[in-house]
Amino acid sequence: MTRVALLWHMHQPYYEDLRTHEHILPWVRLHALKDYYGMAALVSEFPGLKVTFNLVPSLLVQLEAFAADRARDPYLDIGLKPAEALTDDDRLFIVRNFFHAQRQRMIDIYPRYAELLAIRGYPGSTREATAAAERFTVDDLRDLQVWHKLVWLDPYYLEGDDRVRSLVGKGQLFGEEDKQLLREVELELLNKVLPAYRAGAASGQIEISASPFYHPILPLLCDTDIYKRTHPESPMPRYRFAHPEDALEQLTRAAACHERLFGARPVGLWPSEGSVSDAIIPLVSQAGFRWLATDELVLARSLNTSFSRTAEGHLEQPERLYRPYVIDTGGARVACAFRDHLLSDLIGFSYAGRPAEAAADDFVSRLVEAGRRFAKRTGGEDALISVVLDGENAWEHFEGGGRPFLRALYGRLAKHAELRTVTMTEGCSGATDTLTSIFPGSWIDANFYIWIGHRDDQRAWDQLSEARAALDRPSNVSPEARAQAREEVLIAEGSDWCWWYGDDHSSEHDEEFDDLYRRHLGNVYRLLEKPVPDDLFVTNISTIVSAAAESGPTGLIHPTIDGEETSYFEWLHAGRLEIHDLPGAMHQTDRPRAIVCEIRFGFDRERLYVRVDAVRPMTEVLDDGYECSLKFLEPDGIRLSVTAGDGRLVATYWDRRGDPPSWHRRGPSGASVAAGTVLEVAVPIAELNPRAALRFVVALYDRAGSEVERHPASWPIEAAVAEALVEAAFWRA
Questions:
Q1: What is the mean pLDDT of the segment spanning 4-21?
Q2: Domain formed by 549-732, architecture
Q3: Distance between CA 596 and CA 302 in Å, rounded?
Q4: Is this prediction's pTM over 0.85?
Q5: Chain segment 112-123, per-residue pLDDT in tens
Q6: 576-585 — which CB contacts under 8 Å span 24+ positions?
Q7: Phi/psi at 191 (nearest 5 deg)?
Q8: Residue with the larger pLDDT of the pair 588 and 591
Q9: Which of the residues 368, 429, 464, 694 has an alpha carbon 20 to 30 A from that of 661?
């Protein structure tokens, strides 16, 4: 009898900004509506079927909050707002973000939703999106508010709930009462999720396993130098991160979370992204886990061999893969199952385009053949075939949210004469084959390149290392503030932030992920009452193309530094950056307007010139006690501040140095400054002593010394330093 261990991995990163309590993206809530409840409920239709669900605590605690109506995200708030009350910003947000759904399976099958997409089109720029929003009537917007949520409802509700069927049948011209009805359904569904898993676990059909609390890559937390095992010549972060105690805390907190929610501590672990190393095994054991799972390529590397397949995809070494092992290293023993990569990927990436029955037949026939090959090679032993994959993101590409395929598959597995489904604990019990070392890697190519191999990743690791070091330094903050700062570090250790850095993965939300990662680390410093490092205000995404500057410099400039626009031509060839709003949360209707409204910048052969325009004369801004500063990221740690006092302007250099680093006054500068209607600054390039580039932002400080504005918000104005320094082609903003 071939044993089949199915593990569905349910995971979302921690989207909440702990300062604002806003959940930046809606995916916990939307996937809870579409996948989390139904995946558990579906198992109960097939008595005797056994499945393992891996539930990540960072998902579970957010799900709890949404079910209790304690959590909010901008998509939820704007979706519930009366259509007549939507502001221009709201309308723009809706038109840009309320079509986040798989088009073929979730938009085109509903005529009204498809019609609304046709009205919008595919705007690229903000100007095009604004024009698209103007094409929507109030009725269009209300219909879009409904359809955006309606298509994410569980197939059980779409097919069998009279309330939902009536909304789908109505199709258009929804009223505000329809939105409230849909909200009632939403809360009802959210509150069914955790009970469905508890019921499945109580019945014995479902085993619930865990991942580290905030889904970090455990081997990298233990020591980032482990990456050198597979990439010895790769550039590395400046700072080595080595905190196995953090890895252990992520594991113990995950076990405690599951015990609280499900009444029992989990015995199984899917380490984030299947990432393993020798260093994590004692920690996994210490936290109480008895088995873990990872990928077949990790096993092959651990055995110093390779696996090959026939033209039909059948494994030629089934006796090596289709059995559980015991990893015995570091004084600890943990059982381990290794997933069949091909079978897992067939469900995750291939079967969506096939008819459900045919796909299920193909999968089952592969399982049967694999089990027979194993028995033949081992003299009649029973195989353990582990299939581990994402349990949520694939289904939007399947017909009927994946339910026809899953019902066809489960039905065949439940009654097949040669196959028996088992939980991962059952599958791993009795393991005797021993590995004295596990190769360090993940399910992707048996290495950690995705999370540390890019320049963007390495910058993020350096920021994490610096924040982690700040947490360890003595400070006078309250224990509560220190505990909150610790929480922010643990969140930032999650794998998802670096998943989206680099050029191998991208989504429409790369900038939101990047922004939230830097927010979490910035919050560490705020809670510790330390200055937030400047690089946390600048995007880590090196591939981003900024749209902030309407234009870069087109030639040399020679302005008169007098605080006035002396001539139309003096700043004609300067670069130009317009500011409309203060940076902040994705959607915040009550945010203040920025004081600075425009920045111009350029060079001659000896000086950097910057002009700052405000919503009122800059003399008034400075006389009110504000400080205007040029803050340089390259050269790192230099700030040129301009303040007013005793009827004159003072330009002062500051250096950021020390451990922990802080700003220290260097003394007067040779810069020329003048304030009138505008502020004009001319900085001798030689005083900055740049090596390869100039990168700076313009910041405004209040009387208390707090930074209240920074422009650009997410990336610096920059220019290469070379003989051709002054050429416009070297500018980027």
A1: 96
A2: Sandwich (2.60)
A3: 58
A4: no
A5: 999 999 999 988
A6: 576/549, 576/550, 576/551, 576/600, 577/548, 577/549, 577/550, 577/601, 577/711, 577/712, 577/717, 577/733, 578/550, 579/711, 582/709, 583/710, 583/713, 583/714, 585/17, 585/20, 585/22, 585/24, 585/74
A7: -80, -5
A8: 591
A9: 694
Given a cut of 90, whether residue 131 has pLDDT beyond it is yes
CA distances from 456 to 499, 504, 714 (A): 10, 12, 14
Residue type, 732: R
Estimate to the nearest angstrom the gap between the alpha carbon of 8 and the chain centroid: 20
Q: How far apart are CA 613 and CA 576, in angstroms?
A: 11
Residue with tokens 């995971």: 11
| CATH, range 454-537 | 1.20.1430
**pLDDT at residue 433, rounded to an integer:** 97
CB within 8 A of 395, min separation 6: which ones? 34, 35, 401, 402
CB 275 within 8 A of CB 292: no
Contact indicator for 32, 189 with CB cutoff of 8 Å: yes
Question: In the prediction, which pLDDT does 730 show?
Answer: 44
Taking domain 2-10+206-435, whether its CATH number is 3.20.110.20 is answered by yes
Which residue, among 640, 658, 659, 633, has the nearest Cα to 535 in the 3D structure?
Answer: 633
Instruction: List all residues 6 or more positions away from 417 whose beta carbon is below 8 Å from its beta carbon.
Output: none
Kindly state the tokens that stand for 665: 């006054």
**Domain boundaries, given as residue ranges, for the chain:** 2-10+206-435, 21-46+60-194, 454-537, 549-732
Q: Which of 649, 653, 655 is nearest to 641 (CA)?
A: 653
Which of 498-502, 582-586, 602-606 is most confident?
Answer: 498-502
| DSSP per-residue codes, 524-589 | HHHHTT-PPPGGGGS---TT----SEEE---S------SSS---TTTTTTSEEEE--B---SS--T
Structure tokens given for 579: 């500011």
Residue the block writes with tokens 């959590």: 71
Q: How sure is the predictor about 547, in pLDDT bands with cuts at 50, 70 and 90?
A: very low
Give pLDDT tens digits for 317-351: 999 999 999 999 999 999 999 999 999 999 999 99
